[in-house]
């Protein structure tokens, strides 16, 4: 039986994460370092999933998220749930989200995330819906602002739907 472990991410994990993500650029390593700076400052939890002791994915939970559709409203927010291709459909995303939601439950009764609307994110959209995340009711967002009726946009990673979950 394969074992999934979720633990706090550390700076020594960065090279293995970059390798697993096939992105060993300085920019990606810098991004991960910035997220760990937020963790060091108590603003977020950076969670790393290991599958049989191999880096399989990660998620960032910001306790009072400053990004996304519901930014700066005092709500915890999920950022960048990532499970690397060889480890998908093995329960890793579920385990990461269980851990992140448990941490969020300690600070609020709600949690939110933004999910992209293009087809590439279809599996994520279904995953979040099955976990009980529902649209916030404001419509779609583009570049973190609600689009007005009839307003044009581009179907890229900045076109999102904000999903909220009650944490019971």
Kindly describe this structure:
The protein is of the alpha+beta class. It has a single domain (4-166), classed as Gcn5-related N-acetyltransferase (GNAT) (Aminopeptidase, 3-Layer(aba) Sandwich), CATH 3.40.630. Helix content is 27%, strand content 33%. The chain contains four helices and eight strands, in the order βααβββαβαβββ. It has helices at 14-20, 26-40, 92-105, 122-130; strands at residues 4-8, 44-51, 54-62, 77-83, 110-116, 134-142, 145-146, 159-166. Strands 1-2-3-4 form a four-stranded antiparallel β-sheet, with helices on both faces. A four-stranded antiparallel β-sheet has the order 5-8-6-7. Strand 2 (44-51) and strand 3 (54-62) form a beta hairpin. The longest helix has 15 residues, at 26-40. It is globular, with a radius of gyration of 16 Å. The two termini are 31 Å apart. The model has no long low-confidence stretch (mean pLDDT 95).
């Amino acid at each position: 039986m394969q074992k999934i472990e979720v633990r706090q991410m550390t700076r020594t994990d960065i090279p293995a994460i970059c390798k697993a993500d096939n992105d060993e650029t300085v920019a990606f390593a810098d991004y991960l370092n910035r997220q760990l700076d937020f963790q060091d400052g108590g603003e977020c939890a950076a969670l790393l999933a290991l599958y049989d002791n191999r880096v399989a994915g990660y998620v960032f939970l910001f306790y009072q998220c400053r990004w996304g559709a519901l930014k700066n409203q005092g709500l915890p927010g999920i950022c960048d749930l990532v499970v690397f291709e060889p480890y998908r459909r093995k329960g890793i995303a579920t385990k990461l989200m269980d851990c992140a939601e448990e941490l969020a439950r300690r600070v609020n009764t709600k949690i939110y995330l933004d999910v992209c609307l293009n087809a590439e994110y279809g599996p994520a959209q279904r995953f979040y819906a099955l976990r009980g995340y529902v649209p916030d009711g404001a419509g779609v967002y583009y570049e973190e602002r609600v689009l007005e009726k009839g307003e044009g946009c581009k179907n890229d990673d900045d076109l999102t739907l904000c999903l909220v979950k009650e944490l019971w």
